[in-house]
Amino acid sequence: MTATDCKNQLYFGDNLDILRNHVADASVDLIYLDPPFNSNANYNVLFQEKSGQQSAAQITAFEDTRHWSL
Questions:
Q1: Cα 39 → chain centroid
Q2: Is the pTM of this model over 0.85?
Q3: Judging by beta carbons within 10 Å of its beta carbon (0-12, 13-18, 19+), is residue 30 exposed, middle or buried?
């Protein structure tokens, strides 16, 4: 594979798996991770009424309560 073959590639998945199995050593310029990981928090989407007042309705958007281990 030449440098032009892998320019501007976007990978979706577990970053360690992608880096170890699909990306050559010393060839990465940027890794973007979103959302913050290991925050031990749940993130919710809050809704508003048509009037603009806050609604009690919400849904869980992302649960970041994973327990890290070896």
A1: 13
A2: no
A3: exposed
Residue whose pair of structure tokens reads 């060839």 in the numeric block: 27
Cα separation of 64 and 35, whole Å? 9
Contact status, residue 15 vs residue 26, Cβ threshold 8 Å: no
pLDDT in tens, 18-28: 888 888 888 87
Residue entry with tokens 């031990």? 40
Separation CA 43–CA 61 (nearest Å): 6
